[in-house]
Amino acid sequence: MLLTDRQASAxxxxxVRALRDKGIADERVLDAIGRVPRHRFIPDTGLHRQAYDDVxxxxxxxxxxxxxxxxxxxxxxxxxxxxxRVLEVGTGSGYQAAVLAELGARVFSVERxxxxxxxxxxxxxxxxxxxxxxxxxxxxxxxxxxxFDAIVVTAGGPTVPTELTDQLREPAEGRPDARxxxxxxxxxxxxxxxxxxxxxxxxxDETFDGVVFVPLVRDR
Length: 220
Ligand code: SAH
Fold this sequence. Notes:
There is one protein chain. With 220 residues, the protein is α/β, with parallel strands linked by helices. The chain is 29% helix and 24% strand. It has helices at residues 5-21, 27-35, 68-78, 95-102, 114-126, 162-166, and strands at residues 57-60, 63-65, 85-89, 106-111, 131-135, 150-153, 179-184, 190-199, 202-211. It has a seven-stranded mixed beta sheet with strand order 5-4-3-6-7-8-9, covered by helices on one side. Strands 1-2 form a two-stranded antiparallel sheet. α1 (5-21) runs antiparallel to α2 (27-35). The protein starts with a helix and ends in a 9-residue tail after the last strand. The relative contact order is 0.13. The model has no long low-confidence stretch (mean pLDDT 96). Residues 63-66, 89-90, 92-93, 95-96, 110-113, 116, 137-139, 154-155, 214, 216-218 line the site of S-adenosyl-L-homocysteine.
């Protein structure tokens, strides 16, 4: 059954409360989640009633829209500032990209399944969000728009592609250092790493929660 706008906003308020209870503390992130209509990013309307439960759901091509808690947690750890240039690897449904854009980021997002982008791009356009998408292997980043203030990889792999750390901007006076958030580990479970560019040739690596993502696939 389809959701009305009223039902959707009531469900979103409930989701925001649930995320706050689970430990998401950044009110800007919670506000963004409270504004983005997650059900519109789920192609199968039969699943729309579950859109505001804290679960991952299928979006086609064997891929999933991430669990809202994971999106909230990654967005929080990314510490996005309005005006930041943010690269996302793994557009999928477009939901994470939309949350980043709601926070005022200029988002560049790469997805290897062109068929998913065909469904996602019209949704992003209809919401009027500042997001540029491209089909291709995002482990190579998006050199034409680099460097980035922040990069988020929403698929998990065994290693951190150096192409991505190379596309983090160098430290600049008065601005937070650029950072890459990426799940690293075997297919069953990965750890979230935040890699910060602290100098032209130096990176810092912090490890956060365990997560389970679909595989980050390297095409060439
Ligand atoms: N951020 C998405 C999560 C989608 S799941 C959302 O909010 O819905 C992860 C996505 O990463 C999948 O769509 C998968 O096809 C894509 N992916 C995996 N490896 C990739 C790669 N090397 N380059 C670009 N996209 C990739």
